[in-house]
Amino acid sequence: MFCDSAKVFIKSGKGGDGHVSFRRELYVPAGGPDGGDGGRGGDIIFEVEDGLNTLTDFRHVRKYVASSGQEGGKRRCHGASGEDLVIKVPEGTVIKDFQSGKVIADMSGKNRREVILKGGKGGLGNMHFATSTMQAPKYAQPGQPAQELWVQLELKVIADVGLVGFPNVGKSTLLSRVSNARPKIANYHFTTLNPHLGVVDLGSGAGYVMADIPGLIEGASEGVGLGHAFLRHIERTRVLVHVVDAASTEGRNPIEDIHAINKELESYNPELAKKPQVIAANKIDAIYEDGEDQNPVAILKEEFEPKGIRVFPISAVSGKGVQELLYYVNELLKTAEQEPIIFEREFDLSSVNIQPNLPYTVEKDSDGIYIVEGPRIEKMLGYTNLESEKGFDFFQKFLKDNGILDDLEKAGIQEGDTVRMYGLVFDYYK
Predict the structure, then answer these.
(1) Is-above-0.90 flag for pTM?
(2) Strands of the 418-421 sheet, one edge to the other
(3) What is the SS3 assignment for 305?
(4) What is the 8-class DSSP label of residue 293?
(5) Average pLDDT over every residue of 292-314
(6) Rounded to an integer, what distance in angstroms lies between the CA atom of residue 81 and that of residue 69?
């Protein structure tokens, strides 16, 4: 089935740690620090790929992680930067924060490539921390942590005109007649499960893109059936063409159908119901007047034309009346909003939770002492000179940047309480 929505996990690369080393050469007894900087972590980048038209690939791969930067090396060697991860999506894909539903980016129009998550910066090697009073610093800066986020991808078809209507009223047949699209057509409800796009060529350079929006049902705006999946494709269209079965070949009332669909549009997004509308009264070649009932096309005109909605009797099969409909829609597009609908960014990427990726534990023992342990904390304490003011500042920044101070406060620590880390004991003060 056509895939137009996916939930995926994305994570940028962590910055490489700075290195601690000292120049060791013959006849150079005190060569000084020469630890290099860590490399930058890779970015997460979304890019439009013209050959794609669904989000099917994201059904199989739901986790995307950029590579991390390498640690710095001896002799001032800079660690290699992590490779950026470029994720290809079809044009019209809207990237949203999964938790809040806010728009992060709309990959439409001129927006063909966008960095969504930045990789962490590499840490500085110990060569940067040498001073006149501290000529052999035994500490380096860790790389910045990665950013991670769950995002919702939604594909919203980009078309000037959207064909809407209940299943089996002839939308696919109409699109195949007026454009180069070749949707599968059969006499079954919900035959069309994915939007089809076609270019309507009116000659002399005139034309527009038309989309066959899958058949709607009542309750679609509440998510009944595949309602939300279908309705999202109408949001970008500039003109709506209601296709109805004027002959009521299956017993449907075309007037009730139009009112029902407009109700669903308004319930989903009130702006949709305000779009310019046209009615294509299809299957007129199947209308048989017996003199008792009024012509159904005349009834449609009486109901909707006083409201400014034109009704065009057509036959998608024979082509009767189709040209008049197409030219009128073209004139309507000239008066409709010209700029393509691009969804503005609502989500602040600077607020993305930075995940330290640092395994550690914070526990309180029976004596009321808070114990903090973890392999990287132990390593950091091994190369950090806590006797120097600069080294102790670095130690405090490490605890803050990696969320350890926040976790201590969540655990209930108060000023004056004791913290122990691998044999080192501190008093906690804000």
Answers:
(1) no
(2) 361-364, 370-373, 418-421, 424-427
(3) helix
(4) S
(5) 84
(6) 5
